[in-house]
Design brief:
With 119 residues, the chain is mostly helical. The protein is 35% helix and 5% strand. It has a domain of 76 residues. A two-stranded antiparallel ribbon has the order 1-2. Helix 1 packs across helix 4. This is Type IV toxin-antitoxin system AbiEi family antitoxin domain-containing protein. It comes from Klebsiella aerogenes (Enterobacter aerogenes).
Length: 119
C-alpha cells in the first residue's frame, strides 16, 4: 500500500489470533460474531495452527466456536493431535459450562444456533 509492504495473516491464523486475544483485547461475544462468518477455513491450515499452539484455552475456544456454528471444516480437524490439556478453564465469569471443551462460555451461547428455548 503506497509503496509500503504489509504482512498479513491468512484467515485461519487471524481467527486464531483473535481467539487468543479474548479477555485481553476483545470480548468472547465479539469473537463469536466474527466466527459466524468463517465458513471457508481450510481444515488443513486450522489443524496445523492448532497443533503448533501451546495455548490450551485458545485451542478449546477455537474448536468450540467452530462446532457452535456447525462449520464443516471443524469436522475434518483431528482433535486428538491438538493440545487440549486437562481440567476446567474459566474463560468468562457467570457463563455456561461447556462439557465437551471444559470451558465457560457466555450465557448467550448457551443454546446452539438454530435451537430455541421452550417456555
Amino acid at each position: 500500500v503506497k509503496e509500503k509492504e504489509l504482512t498479513v495473516s491468512c484467515a485461519e491464523l487471524a481467527a486464531y489470533e483473535v481467539v487468543d486475544a479474548i479477555g485481553k483485547l476483545i470480548s468472547f461475544e465479539h469473537v463469536a460474531e466474527l466466527f459466524q462468518g468463517l465458513v471457508n477455513l481450510s481444515p488443513r491450515k486450522v489443524q496445523d495452527i492448532l497443533e503448533r499452539s501451546s495455548s490450551v484455552q485458545a485451542n478449546r475456544i477455537f474448536l468450540f466456536l467452530g462446532r457452535y456454528y456447525d462449520h464443516q471444516w471443524v469436522n475434518r480437524v483431528d482433535e486428538t493431535r491438538i493440545k487440549l490439556g486437562a481440567g476446567k478453564r474459566q474463560v468468562v465469569e457467570k457463563g455456561r459450562f461447556d462439557e465437551r471443551y471444559q470451558i465457560t462460555v457466555p450465557e448467550i451461547l448457551s443454546v446452539k444456533k438454530g435451537e430455541q428455548h421452550n417456555g
